[in-house]
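Narrative progress, year one. The postdoctoral researcher (J.K.) led the effort to move from monomer predictions toward full complexes, under supervision of the PI. The following entry was the first complex the group processed end to end, covering 1481 residues in total.
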Amino acid sequence: MKENKKTYWKGLEQLNNDPEFVKNADREFPELPSTLNEEGSASRRDFLKVMGFSLAAASLAACEAPVRKMIPYVNKPVDINPSVPNYYASTYATGGDYASIVVKTREGRPIKIDGNELSPINKGKVNAIVEGSILSLYDKERIAGPYSGGQLSDWKTVDAQAKSALASAGAVKIVANTIISPSTLKAIQQFADANGNVEVIMYDPLSNYGITKAAETYYGSAVLPSYSFDKAKTIVSFGADFLGSWISPIEFARQYAQTRKISKEKPEMSRHYQFESTLSLAGANADYRTPIRASQSGLAVLALYNAIAKKAGAATVSAPAVEIAHLEKAAADLWASKSASLVVSGSNDPNVQVVINAINELLGSNGTTVDFANVAHYRKGDDAKMNQFVTDLNAGRVGGVIFYNCNPVYDFARGAEIAAGIAKAKVSISTNGTLDETSSLVQIVAPDHHFLESWNDFEPKKGHFSLAQPTISPLFDTRQAQESFLVWAGDTTSYYDFLQANWQGGLFTQVETSGTFQEFWDQTLYNGVLAINSTSEALAPVGDVSAAASAVSKAYSADNASAELVIYTKVGIGNGAYANVPWLQELSDPISKATWDNYLTVTQKWASENGVTQSEEHTSKASITVNGKSLIVPILIQPGQAEGTFGLAVGYGRTKAGRVANGVGVNAYELLDASKGFVNFDITSGVEVSATGDSYKIARTQTHQTFMGRENVIQESVLSEYQKDASAGRSHPQIYKDGEFVKPSKISLWSGHQYSQHHWGLAIDMNSCIGCSACSVACQVENNVAVVGKQEVLNRREMAWIRIDRYYSSDAPADDLSAMEVASSNPEVTFQPMMCQQCNNAPCETVCPVAATTHSSEGLNQMTYNRCIGTRYCANNCPYKVRRFNWFKYHDNKDFAGVNVAQNDDLGKMVLNPDVTVRARGVMEKCSMCVQRIQAGKLEAKREKRKVKDGDINVACAVACPTDALVFGDLNDSNSKVSQLLKIEENTTSALKEVNEERAYHVLEEINVSPNVWYFTKIRNKDLNEA
Amino acid sequence: MQVTSSVREPLVTGGKTYHDVTHDVSRHVEAKPNIRWFLAFLTSAGVLALGSIAVVATVWEGIGMWGLNKTVGWAWDITNFVWWVGIGHAGTLISAVLLLFRQKWRTSINRAAEAMTIFAVICAAMFPVLHMGRPWLGAYWALPLPNVFGSLWVNFNSPLLWDVFAISTYFSVSLVFWYIGLIPDFATIRDRATGLRKIIYGALSFGWDGAAKSWSRYESVSLILAGLATPLVLSVHTIVSFDFATSVIPGWHTTIFPPYFVAGAIFSGFAMVLTLMIVTRKVYKLEDYITMGHIELMNIVIIITGSIVGIAYITEFFIAWYSGVEAEQYAFINRATGPYWWAYWSMMTCNVISPQLFWFKKIRTSIVATFALSIVVNIGMWFERFVIIVTSLHRDYLPSSWAMFYPTWADVGVYLFTFGLFFTLFFLFAKFFPVINMAEVKSVLKSSSDKVHK
C-alpha cells in the first residue's frame, strides 16, 4: 500500500522543488508578502503598524456620524419630484369657519396653506387660524385609531359595537357644528334612514343664531345673509368684530379693505362707525368708535332705528332714551349713503337682529350690502335645539348621541351639563380626532381623518361649492366620519365614491358642460371651487319690528349700574378648536399684544379705582363671579373699553386639547348664558369682579402702548386733508448741511448700491392693514420660525420675523413724555406691520465683525446663519429692532419640546419647510423677504428661459394678507404692482429710487438707512376737528 | 533776581537704604505664605469657582441664561467688558505716560498698576468671547485668519473687529512692558535665593546680569515701549467707544465718546489702583514707598478726570437738546427720568459729585476717605457703562420694541467670575512677584536732598 500512495502536487513548482516554492511552502498565502520576519514572529515595526492601524480604525469608526440614508425611489410616484412642491386645492371648514385653500406639499407632506385665488369668497386669502391649522395635522396627540371604552381598539370591533348599540338605542342625536357639506348631510341622512330615530343638532361655538332666528322672524326664513362690505359707503357695527371673528372675517376683511384703499384716482373711502363694549379688531379700525355698555347696545340699535325711521318717514318705536356719542352722525351718514350703507350687530339676541334687519330694510341695503337671497351657510347653529338637547340628555331622553367633530363639553355654554349627561345616553360616540373634553367621555371614539387627509365637498354659500381632497395618506388608523356613518348604515361604499356619485347625480346635472363627468370632476378638483347659476329671490319683510323693539327696550337699560362681562373672541385662537397649535398660542394678539393667555380686560378707570396697576409684564389677578361661577383670571388694562365692562376671551382653558393648550388660560364658555333661548355673549347682570391682589405675569410682545407722537414712525391724517393734499400727514425731515436744509437721502457716507437685475421692495398700506396678523403666522410657517413659549416671551425673546406694531393715541400734550406713555381712554389705533426693512444703507451690515450679514445684488439684506457668531451687535444697531436671536437651542431640545413642537417632535417636524434652515443656537435671524421663494421664482423663470414676471414671486406675508396691505415686487420693473403703487417712474438700477407717491414714507427717514420697505400714511375718514 | 527752589519732598520716606528697598520688597516673596494671604487667596479662588458655574451654564445652555432680550442685546456683558478695560488703563498710563513725562513718583506704584492692567484686560477679554452666541467659532472667526471657506474674510468696517485688534495689541504691549520691568527684580530675588526658588526666578529673570550694557538696553526698551504704549492708552478706549459712537442708536451715536471714554477709563483705573494699593501698602507695610504724596497725586488725577466726565455728561445733554433730534432728546430725558433713573443718578453721584470732595485736602489725604471714594468711583463707572448701554437700547426709535432688562443669576455669576479671576491673579502676583519695582525705586531714592530725611 505504502508504495502505491499517490502524491498530488500543488503544481509544477513542487514537483521541480523550486527554491522559491520551498521557501514559502508552509504559508497559507504564499503569493502575499510575508508579515513575519525570519524568526516567524511579528517585527516591532509591524506590530506598531498593525496596532496603529487598528487603533485608528477603531477610533475612526467610533467618531463616524450615524448614517442617514437617502434612498431614491425605485418607482417614482407620479407628480412627486424631490424638492419640487405640489399644490392641491382643498377646503378648510371647521366650526362654521370656511376658507377655500391651496395646500403646498413637499415630497408628499403638506407644509403650507394658502388661500385659493379662484374662490369668490376668500379670493386667495386666509387668516391666522387657517394658516396655523396645518400643524394640527402633525399633532402627535391625535389618536392612533378607534377607541372603545377608553381603550385603543380596531375598526371591526368598534363598528360592530356601534351598530348594535345604535340599533337598540332609541332616539339618536348627532351633535355637530355647522355642516356645510351636501354629501356629508346625505351620508348622515342615509344613516338616519337606516336607523330611524335620528336628529342632527347643529350648534356653533361662536353662535350667530340670533341672525338666523331674526331672519326667520322678520323674513320668514331662517337664513344667514351674505354681506358685501365692499359695496358699503357707510358701515355701522354694533359690536360685530367682522374683521376679527364675526362669521366670515377673511371675506369681510377683503371686502372692507377695498373701501379703505385710497389713491389720487380714488380719493374716497368708506366711513366706519363702531359701537362696542370691548376694543375689537373692527373697532380698532373704525373711524368713529364709541364705547357703549353691552346693556345699552340694544337701546343704541333702537335709537339708530328711530333716527333712520325719522329720516325715512317711517314709524318710530318707543324706546328709552340713551345718550350715545356719534349715533346721530352715523344715522345721518347712513341715510346720506342710502342703499350703500350697512348696519351689522354682533349681538346674538334675535330681537336686536330683527331691528338691525329693519334698519337695513329702511336704508335699502337689503339686496345691496346685505343679501338675503344669496345666503351664506357658514352658521346654521340652532341654540334653542341645542339647549333642548342638553336638557333631554340630562333627563335621560337621549338614547344615543354622536358628536360629529365637535366639542360641546368644552365650547357650549352648558358644557358641564353635557359632560354629566353623556353617561345617561345608552350609547355615546365621537368622531373627534383627539381625546378632547368631549371624546374622552364617550364610549366609542371613531376618529375622523384630519381635514387635510379627507375627501369632502362644501356649499359655503348658495350656488358656491368647493371640494376638499387628501394631501397626504392618513397618518393614523383613522377613518373619514362620513364613511363611519355609511358603515353604520350598512353601506360599505367608500366616501370618495359616495361623494363622486352624489356629484354625478346632483351638481353635474346642473352645470352646462360638454365634457364627461370625469372631466368635470377633475377640473373642479383642480380648481377646488365651483360656482353654479342659482336662482335667488330677494326676501321681503314679513315680520314686524315693533314686537322686537319692545322686547329690546325691556331687555336693555340705559343706566345699568352693575358690572358687565363681554365674552369676545381673539383673532389668533378663535373658538379654541386649534388651541393646541403653538403658533396660534404665541401669536401676539393684535389688540392686547398678549400671548399664551386669556385675561380679564378692564378699563383704566376701574384699574385706578381698584388700585390695579400694570407695568411691562407685571399685573395682578382678579376673581370674576358670574351667576355663581367663579374664575380667577389675570387682569389686563385695556383702553377703549366701555366703563363698567369687563372682557374675557373664549378659546382658552382647554383641559384635554394636548400638551400645548392644556392649562393655558380659563374657559370663558362656562360663563356664557344660555338661559334666554340663545347663547348670550354679553352678561349684563350677576357679574362680580374683585381684584385678588395676587401678582401675575402676562407675556406681551409689546408693552409700550403709544407711539409717543413720533411722526417719523406713524404718519397719519384725515380724508378731507388728504383730498386737499395727497401728502397730508407726511413729515419731511430735513438735515442742515452747508447752509441749507436737504433731504436726509442727500447726505450719505455710502457710495450706494447698484442693482442691475432685480431690486426687491415692499409697499405697506397702513390704511388697509387691519392688524389681523395672518402675515405673522404665514411667515412663521413659511420660514420655520421657532415658538419659544410663555416664559421666553416674558423674557421678550419671541422670534416673530414680522410683527404687527399696535399703537394707541394719547391725549397728553407732546411735551409731557411720561403722560404720553398712557393711552387715551378711547384711543385711535394704528397698526404697523414691521419686519426687516432691507435697508440699502444697513446699519447691521457694517457692524458685523465676521460679515455674516451682507447686502445682496438684489437689494436684500441677507443673513448667513452659518457665518454668524452671535455678537448681537447687528440687533442692537437695528433701528427697527427686527432682528431675532436664538438665545437657546430651540429645536431638538426637551426644554422647548412642549411648545416648539414643529421643531422637536418627529411628527411635528414634517411641517418644516425644507427650503429654509432651522436655525442653530447662538445665531441671529430675521426676515429674509422669503429669499427661498425669490430663488425658486428666478429658477423657474430661468428654466422657462424668460424674465421673472411680476407676480411670479410673492412673499408669504403678502400672500396671506386678506386685505392686500402688503405688496411685494421688483422695484426695477416699472410695470410691477409695487412700482406702480409707489409711482417709481425712472428706470434706474440705483438703490435709491425716486418715489413719487405722496403717501409713501420710510419709517425713520431722517437716519437715512434707506429701507426697501415703504409705508403709506394712515388716513382716517374723520372730521378734521375730531381727529 | 534770585530764585530759590523749594526743597523737594522725598519720594521715599523713612530713610530707606538700597538694602532696605530690596529687603522690604523681597521678603514678601521669600517668606512663607501667611494665613491672611491664604484666606484672601482662597476667597478669590472660591468666587472664581462659583462664577465658573455661571460661565459653564452660559456656554452650555446659551446666552439665554442672561437677562438679555430682543431689544437689549447687550447689558452686563459689555458693561463689564468696558468697565474692566477702563480699569486696565491706569497701569499703562502710570508706567508709560508718566515715564515719558519724567514723573518719578510713579516708580513705586507702576508695578502693581501694570499687573492690575494686565489682569483687568484678561477679565475684560472674557466678555467679548463669552457674550458670543457661538464662542467656539467666534473665538477664531473674529480674527483675520487664512481659511478654507473660500475668500471669507472678517469685516474691517466693524468696530467690534477694531476692538479685537485694539485689545489684543494693548494686552501684548502691556504684558511685554510689565515683564521687561520685572526682569531686574526677578534677578534680585534670584540672587538672594537658593534651591528651587533660585532656579525658577533664574529662569524668569532671563539671565539678567546687571551689567551696564544690560541696564542701558533695559532703559532703551522701556523708553521705546513707553512710546508705543502711550498712544495705546488713548486708542484702546477710543476704539471701545467706537462700538457705540459709530452706531445709529440714540445715546450711542455721539462724537464726544472717544475723549469721554478715555477720561472715564483713567478715572476708573486710578480709582482701582488706589483701592488695591491702599490695601497692599497696609498689608505689606510699604507706607514708606507708597506715601501720602502718591495718594494725593492720584486723587488729583481723579478730580481732573472726574470733572472731565462730568462735563461730558452735561455736554451730551446739551447736544441732545441742541441737535433737535427727537429720539436723541428722548434718550437723554429717559436716562435721567425714565425707568432706569436710579442708574443714571447713581452714576452722577458717584462719578461727578463724589470726586469733587477731593478738593478738600483733608479728604484727599485721608486714607479711609480715599479708599471709600475709590470704590464709589468704580461703582459709578460701572453704572456709567450700564447707563450708556442699557438705557440707550431699552428705549430707542420704535416704542413698540421698548423693553426692560433684568439681570439673571448668570449675569451676576459671570461678573463674579471675573472678580474671582482678577483677585486670584492679583493675590498670586502679590505673593510671588515683587509688588514694587525695586530697581526703579532705588533710582529715585536719592532724588532729593538728604537733609530732609526725617
